[in-house]
Structure formats: structure tokens, C-alpha cells
Amino acid sequence: MSGTFTGNQGLRIEEPLIFELDSPGQSAVDLPEPPAVENRLGAAERTEPIGLPGLTEPEVVRHYLRISQKNYAIDAGLYPLGSCTMKHNPRLNEKMARHAGLADLHPLQPQSTVQGALELMDFCAEWLTTLTGMPGIALSPAAGAHGELCGLMTIRAALEDRGDARERVLVPESAHGTNPASAHMCGYKVESIPADDRGRVDVAAMIDRLDDKVAAIMITNPNTCGLFENYIVRIADAVHDAGGFVYCDGANFNAIVGRVRPGDLGIDSMHLNLHKTFSTPHGGGGPGSGPVVLSEALAPFAPVPYVVRDGDGFRLVEHIGDSDNKPYGRMKGFHGQFGVFVRALSYMLSMGSDGLRQASSDAVLNANYLKSRLEDLLSVSFDGPCMHEVLFDDRFLKDTDVTTLDFAKAMIDEGFHPMTMYFPLVVHGALLMEPTETESKAALDQYADMVRSLAERAKAGEAEMFKEAPKLTPRRRLDETSAARNPVLRWADRSEGS
Amino acid sequence: MRYLPLTDADRQAMLAEIGVAAIEDLYKDVPADALLDAPVDLPSHKGEWEVERIIGDLAAKNLGASSVPSFIGAGNYRHHIPASADHLIQRSEFLTSYTPYQPEVSQGTLQALFEFQTQVSLITGMEVANASLYDGATACAEAAMMACRVTKRSKMILSGGLHPHYIDVTATNAKYLDLNVINAGVDPNRDEPAHLAGLVDEETACVIIQNPDLFGRVRDLSALADACHEAGALLVVIVNEIVSLGALKSPGEMGADIVAAEGQSLGNGLSFGGPHLGLLATKEKFLRQMPGRLAGETTDVDGKRGWVLTLSTREQHIRREKATSNICTNSGLCALAFSIHLALLGETGFTKLARLNNANAVLLADKLDAISGVEVINDTFFNEFTVRLSKPAEPVIETLAANRILGGVPLSRFYPKNDAVTDLCLVTATELTREEDMDALSSALSEALA
Predict the structure, then answer these.
(1) Predicted confidence (pLDDT) at residue B344 exceeds the cutoff of 50
(2) Which residues of chain A have pLDDT under 50?
(3) Which of A305, A438, B182, B394 is the most exposed place for a label (fewest CB within 10 A)?
(4) Cα-based distances in Å from B368 to A35, A320, B411
(5) Do B272 and A107 touch (CB under 8 A)?
(6) How far is B215 from chain A (nearest CA, A)?
(7) Whole-angstrom distance, CA of residue A63 vs CA of residue A80
């Protein structure tokens, strides 16, 4: 297919950087002449040019359309990234978030003029606390990791309130990397807990490490092996008996919404990824939203701001000094990811309590169906039913000279985004697949047939095909080593004479 | 249920293939008494128009900022977003993709991020920028902690002219670490850069100053940068109105070591304060201590130019507790919106937009300054400035709001217990502020102060 004059391949069009399309002086925005007044910029006035390129609207639109076509997306196909919950993102959510009465609100308008927005935040909070069975909530964290930090800070504030800050946080080795990083940012030492041979937290090892210096355990449930931590209540009881708290990483809440309330399991604090479980789009890496639900013991320590009902209306508590509680601080500018709250509420109202319960059931059913379609050819890491994602390891590739990475790249040529690779770290060469509930049986069957075909080809000795994959993408395997060794992180004019 | 493709027949067939009788069999690891046997007590599912009605009713209870004369800024600015920018970010390929972990099927997002990093580097006058953080306040906190890692010192000095939310978020982030946060305290009357220069010592990791500051003043910070560098400290410059960089010397030109900024003004609407866009830029020599994702240029096996996420050994998924930050999800789509808006504006559009903002603010300041009971306290400003009123500002702003004018931000909103700011109000003009809006504010303000 190579060898065209332009380098283009049919609908796949080579596109330069926006800086290489510069037509100096052009602009895609027609602006009026500024009124002729003396500026008030003083000594800080800019005198040097910036170096931004000039383009017109058709050129800019074409540029972004062309580069967009080099992306895979959930709207284009099954996106089985484990622990990422790539489910359908309803367009109704986008329409609601763009409602002028919501999108066009300034966060510092007098509160009397934004009562509907405060009510919406309260409404969203009510759904999230009811679904999790937790009485308190901090809406403001901007993403999952930010929620983890918020949850841990809430725990630390509660501990310090009783004069006992403690020193360590226990983190299972299967945890997301954000967990230990968040614990570290909260001033705690991280102690790793091994997994047992069933893919769960080794309870004996955990109890062994528990003492009066342990502030919390950070547990992911369902965990990153796609398994429910069946001893969760025992774990929570043991931690509570030792005077600590239980933080739950809620990244995998999609498996249990409407079927299990984390509050019934002894969880004290848990973040929710609205951009996973509650269908708001990932946008190529964000924005997310990571509200944290809190037990009765932790609720008073939630950060500002928060919304309270005040007679017939709603009031925003923005300052620690104005609070009747003991907020530990502030996580974010203004009031949290409001536009994401609108989208999540639109989703929750659409699904209802019945639909949310059906969604989690279907997510679990789809993952188990994939497992059952693939387990004879791939190597399932742990026995028994999985939750919303299924974990395989690379034993099935033994002696084939094909790695998990090669396998993933071959999936790309087949028109699918690969699963999560090499995570969790508790198995070798992990392949973690999360189909979500928004895939049809036909889509799952096609995916399973594709994976089976690749597994058979790997076992049949076609390693060469895997090593060369992907061949059909706008770019083939990229040299990540040299990218890191000699970082080029911005465009620079390398044309002659400059 | 419009988002769930499985039919009941599918479900039965799939359960049979799995070899279980019912879905409950797949939840057998859940403690029996924690498994709910019915949906939780919340309303059941709804069609699109029912959802639209419920959310529409909530929206109708608010006063949209563009539906009335509006002069509110203070870290969140009402600018015009070109139609093509909002259209392009809603392309499925951008909107519904994940973080670009598989570069061969993510070249669109990666190229856009590389362009974004270049744009941010250019306007801030810095050598490198990351692929975004959550917002300006969290970017400020990350910059503060980064400066402590770079200098191996623990004292940070925060200007009183820094947005109060940025101060609070930075102090909160430092709270449980062994870091020493010095808050210089809010004072609208002092020469802030000179004051801060006097506080820098050999233990100082960084001085954090905002330009334009909370009161709207703009300063050349070169002398403060020199004072910092002499003491081995870094200068962190905060920009929460990014459009100002079209008219102001860049922080890099003034000697900044790290720039943390709020990028909302380009491409991103008010949205009641979020989601917004944190920007972080620095010098290349500090790159290894920079938090957040980075897109980098490389080549593929055929030698063609392409982009990948790079230097991930700084990040949590590799380094875990030794990472530079816990950040994972950032503000990707907001960064794209920013980048498209800036691409649409170009050099001439961006600088002209900035001049237009400043000129409108000058017109407004002159009109307000002429009112009895109103005094503009700024000598310099970009697109917002502070007025001293003859009455406490907050009730005046409430009165204006009751008359459908969003007149500004009383500084008591940030400092409710500080008598020094009770009569101060921050007033903003952008390219969207019309002369008739200014006149409406002038007459309403005259009346309220009479």
C-alpha cells in the first residue's frame, strides 16, 4: 500500500503539525478593532512576538478532522481496556452539559442566582450516596487519583482529630499505581501486601502487618484481577479493630452498582470515577471527576466547598471558618467538575435504579461470557467467576516467541483496541479485558473469535506476523526508547535560515 | 433500556455458555447479606425527554451569565468560543477515546497534545510544558511541590495576590508533608514583588506570585526573579487569565522557572467552575521533576515521524509511591479545546483578542471611576481591576444581581472576615463586554451607592 506520491493511503491522510501550516497574519477569528485607548499594562507590556501560526477556519477544521481519524474510540468499536470501563458515552449527557442555564454559569455569581446549579450538585450527591450506602460525600476531586488523595486526607484528618496521625498505609500489590502515590502525597509510608494464590489480598499477611501505626488499608474491590474480595468484611473488621480506616478504590464500581453497597461492607471512604462507571467521556485522558463517599465517622472532615440545604434553598459552604464541621482543606479551585456532574446525573436519571442494576449485571455477564469463550485457549489467571473484567496471563504464549505486547499489537490490525497489558503486576504478562455492558453479544462473539484466531496463530508458530504488527495503522510500532532518551516535547522551526 | 444491547434471550444463552443458572451465581463471592435482592430506592429509568425536562427545570432556576450584563472574573472568564472548537472536540475520535496508551491507534490525540505543549511553551515563554493538569489551583500546588523537589528545600512563599483558592489548595497539598507554607497575606496596597523579594532567604524553595494578581494588577517580575535566583530559590509564576499573555511579557521573559496556569479562557466555557485546564511549563533542566503526562516525538519502524507518551518513569503507574505526582487522568479534552481555540486565533488573533480585552477594561474603568463612591485602585491591569466602593461590596453586588446585573466579585467572597477588603470589588471586562453593558453597570452602581 505504500508508494503513493502524497504518502496518503486513501482515507488515511498524512497531516503536518499546525505550526507547519503557518500562513503568517491569518486568523480564523474575526475580531473588531480594539477601542483606541491608552493601555494600562505598564512595564509588563509584551513587546516580542509569540510565534503562533496563523490559519483560517477551513484549514483548522481540516487539520483536526484529519488527525482525529488517527484515533481509536469507543464510538468506533469495543475498547476492552481493563479497569478503564470504556462504556458508551451517551450524547444526551453532552447536550445536557451544554444547556445554557448550566454551562453559562460563573462559579462566583451570587448564590441566589445559581440555586438550580447547587440543587443539581445536591441531587447528584444524593444518587451517589444512595447507590453506595455511604452518608457523606466530597464532590470536588477532579479525578480518581485526586479522589484517593481526598479520601486519605479525610482519614488523616479524622485520625489527627483524635490525636493519632499514624504512619503507614497498607496497599495490596495488585493496586493501581495511583494508590501508593496518593498515600505518599498524604505523608504516609506505603507498605505492600501480597496477593494470595486466589488473586485476593493475603488476609493473613495483612493482619500480620496491622498495628496501631496503620492509618488505613487501600483496597480495590472488585480488585484489579477482576475478582471480588470475598473476605472484605473480615478485612474491614480487622482494620477497624486496629483503629484504622478502610479506603476503597472505586475504579471498578461498575461491577456492583445496584447490587452491593460498599457502605454495607465496612468501607469508610471510596472515590467514584464518574468518567468510568457513570458514562462521562474520557476525552483522550480527561477531564474526569472523582467524588469521594464517606462513612459517618469521616463525613465531618470532608473538604470545602460543599452544598447544604438551607430552608427552601441551597447554600455553598466555601470556607473552613464558615463550616459547622471540621473540613481538612480544599482540593480544587471553585466547586469541582460541575460539567461532569451534569453528565453523570443525566446518565443516572436515564438508567434509573433498575437500569443501573441491570448494567452492572450485564457488565459481569459480558466479562464471564468472554472468559468462558476464551478460557480453553488462553490462560485464565484465577479460577471461579470474575466480576466485570477478566484477567489472563501469558502462559498460553509460552514457547511461541509472541509476547503480550505482540499479541496486543496484532489485535490492533484486527480493528480492535487492545486490552490492558502488563497490569496488574501480580501475574506475568497480564491481559486484562473489560468489555462493559454496552457491548452486544454479537460484538463479544466477534471479539472472542478474533482473539481465538490470534491465539491459534501464535501457537501455530506465526510469531513473525505478531512481531511486525501493527501493519495497517497510520503509524507502526514507535520507538519509545529514543523518545525517552532524547526527549523532543515541542515543535521547533528547523527550516533553513531559522 | 437504550444503552444496554443484551436481550433476555442473549442473557439466557450466555449464562448457559458460562454454565450457571442465574446472574446471582456470578456474584457468589459477595457476602450473602451484602447482596441486594432488589434495586436501591431511587427512581427507575427515563426516556430522553423526561431527563431533559428534569435537568432543564434545574437550569431554569439559574441566571445565565451571558443573559445579563456580566462582569465576573477572578480566575474564571467568559470569552467567546468559536463554534468550530466546540464542534471539533465532540468528534467521537477525540471525545470517546482513552489516554493514548497505544500510540499506533492514538496518533490524533498524541499529535494534538504535542501541538498543545508547543503552544503552552510559546505563550508562557518556557522551554517545555506538560499535557495538562486538572486546573490552575492544582497546577499551582504541583508547581510548589515540584520546586521543593528541584531545590531540595521545603519553604514556599505564597503571594497575598494569589487567587485564594490557589493558596488553599496549595496549603492543603502541603499539609501532611514536611513543607513550610508562608502565606504573605492579602494587602491591596503594597508593592507585592518587592515585598516578596524581601522575604526570600537561603531556605526558600520558591516564591509563588500571580500575574495579573488577585486585584488585577500587572507587574514586571524580573527583579523578583533575580532575587529568587540569588538565593537559589525558584520563581513560580501563576497566570489565571491566560488571554493576558497576548498582551503581557511572558513569564519566561521575566525569569520564571515554573509557570502554572489556568487555561479555561481558551476553548472552555464557565461551566460553574469546572472542568477546567491546568497548565504547567518549565525549563528543560527541571523536566525530570515535572509531574503529568508528556507527549514526545519519535519515529516508527518505517522511519515516519510520530508521537508517544514519554518519560513515564516519573509517573505513578511505573514509580508508584516514588512518582512525581499521583496524577493519572488529566484534562485532555479541555487541552484540546484550548489548543483548537488558540490555533483558530493564531498570532494576530490572540494578540488582538488580548488588546481588545484590555481596551474594554480601560473603557469600563474610566466609566466606573467617574461615579461618585467608586474608586479604581489599580495603576495597572489587564482585563480586570479592583474598585473601592463607598459601601460594603457584597450587598451592593446582591442588589445588582436582583436587578439582573452580575456586577463583579466582592473580595469578601474570598476573605469574609477581613475588614480590609469589605469595600473592594473585582470587576472584569472581556471581548464580550459591550458599551451598553458598561453603561448598565454604571447607572445601576450609581443608584446602589446613592
Answers:
(1) yes
(2) 1, 497-498
(3) B182
(4) 17, 34, 17
(5) yes
(6) 14
(7) 29
**pLDDT tens track for B203-236:** 999 999 999 999 999 999 999 999 999 999 999 9
CA distance B207 to chain A (A): 19
C-alpha cell at A272: 467514584
Size of interface A-B (CB pairs under 8 A): 737
The confidence score (pLDDT) of residue A1 equals: 46
Percent of chain B with pLDDT over 70: 100
CATH number at residue B397: 3.90.1150.10
Task: Let me know the angle formed at the C-alpha of A371 by A365 and A374, rounded to the nearest 5 degrees.
Answer: 140
Task: Answer yes or no: are the C-beta atoms of A249 and A85 closer than 8 Å.
Answer: no
Q: CA torsion sign, A439 to B112 to A332 to A96?
A: negative
Q: Answer yes or no: CATH 3.10.450.350 is held by domain A92-348.
A: no
Q: What does the pLDDT look like over A118-155, one tens digit per residue?
A: 999 999 999 999 999 999 999 999 999 999 999 999 99
What is the model's pLDDT at position B317?
Answer: 85
Residues B163 and B231 in one domain: yes
Instruction: Give the closest of B93, B175, B218 to A329, CB-based.
Output: B175
Average model confidence (pLDDT) for chain B? 97
Residues B61 and A112 sit within 8 Å (Cβ to Cβ): no
Q: How much is the pLDDT for A61?
A: 98
Grid cell in block for residue A421: 497489558
Are B202 and B300 found together in one domain?
yes
- State the pLDDT at residue B315: 87
Kindly state whether residues B385 and B277 are assigned to the same domain: no
Segment among A162-166, B185-189, B360-364 with least mean pLDDT: B185-189
Of residues B95, B328, B379, nearest to A281 (C-beta): B95
Work out the number of other CB atoms within 10 angstroms of the CB of residue B69.
21
Residue type, A297: A
pLDDT score recorded for residue A498 = 43
Q: Which CA distances in Å does B411 have to A264, A312, A336, A359, A491? A: 44, 27, 21, 47, 41
Q: What is the pLDDT of residue A2?
A: 56
Q: What is the pLDDT of residue B321?
A: 87
B294, B312, B342: which is the final residue of a domain?
B342
Instruction: Tell me which H or E stretch contains A432.
Output: strand A431-433
Chain B contact probe: residue of A33, A119, A334 with most B CBs at under 10 A: A334
Residue in A21, A29, A19, A28 with CA at minimum distance from that of residue A50: A19
The predicted pLDDT at position B316 comes to 86
From chain B, pick out residues whose CB is under 8 angstroms from the CB of A35.
359-360, 362-363
C-alpha cell at B206: 520558591
Of A234, A219, A306, A253, whose CA–CA distance to A133 is shortest?
A253
**Chain A contact set for B378 (CB, 8 A):** 40
Which residues of A are less than 8 Å from B26 in CB distance?
A: 364-365, 368, 385, 387
Is B307 found in the same domain as B171?
A: yes
Residue where a domain terminates, one of B325, B342, B359? B342
**Residue B322 pLDDT > 90:** no
Helix residue ranges, H only, A280-337: none
The closest of A233, A168, A229, A242 to A196, measured between CA atoms, is A229
Q: What is the pLDDT of residue A495?
A: 65
